[in-house]
Amino acid sequence: MKHFLNLKDISAKDLRKILSEAKKRKNKRKALTTLQTDRDLPLKGKLLIQMFEKSSLRTRLSFYLAIKQLGGGTITLRSNELHLGQGGETLEDTAKILSTYGDGFMLRTDDDKKINDFRKYLSIPLINGLSPSSHPTQILSDIFTVEEIKKKPISKLKITWIGDTNNVLNSLIVASVKFNFKLSIGCPKKYIPHSSLMNWIRNQKKKVHIFNKPNEAVKDADVIFSDKVISLNDKVNVKQKLSHFKSFRITPNLIKKANKDCIFLHCLPRGPEVDRKVFLSKRSKVWHQALNRVHVQKSILLYCFDKLR
Ligand code: CP
Ligand code: NVA
Q1: Which protein residue has the closest C-alpha to ligand 2 atom 1?
Q2: pTM score, two decimals?
Q3: Domains plus CATH for the chain?
């Protein structure tokens, strides 16, 4: 069994294998309906337990469909309904019970330490469904979407991120090393990526380019990514932070500065960082992006259960 916690921990070869499997399975089920299972039922009889300490629409539904299509099932727990955190049950005991009842555990948490603690005590695969420091399932799926739409390896494309430094960007930065693509980041000076991540990149002998002017960041971009300026449970002065990002709004004018066939991606939910006209334009592939999560999640599950072909 394997965990899926951070793209850093997974070899480039395995990440590529996950994407190839997703492509094969996606192609094979073109004629199938939402809940029809893949013919080989590779996870028949397996139960994925999902737990959310924060809201979720896409991650919850995509894991639901992913495990169902592979022949298994899922149950979703809300952390505030468990003894853990409420009635004094320890994380260790909770993890042992989860490992007894279930076959895999997907956790969305507000606390990176919890991911490490669960990893220590679980004897089933653990998947990080978003933590403060990373959102690896999202970004792996987004690489899949980029390559599917652009019909070329992401290493041949220029990717730009406009917006806050957050979990999604952290995973995109790691992906730029694992998949070897050019990444430019446009953000206000105060919000540049954390020095520990920049040092990690340097140690990998790679580079990301940081710009404090959005026009410069999007120059020659094939793909522009963005995300909410105010993340879930972000404890900041919202008005002030939004004002810092005012000139980083993704508008039709900004998109014009990128390559003419540039696409726009956003993991959703969205906020004022992107103009509605851009979000609903032909350039925007956000709905396609969201649905692809099912296909990549399936492959991530197979990786965790040592079932990748
Ligand atoms: N993009 C994403 O993770 O969406 P949810 O928060 O709805 O799961
Ligand atoms: N950065 C966002 C992603 C939401 C899917 C957040 O953490 O809220």
Answers
A1: 231
A2: 0.98
A3: 7-134+293-304 (3.40.50.1370), 136-289 (3.40.50.1370)
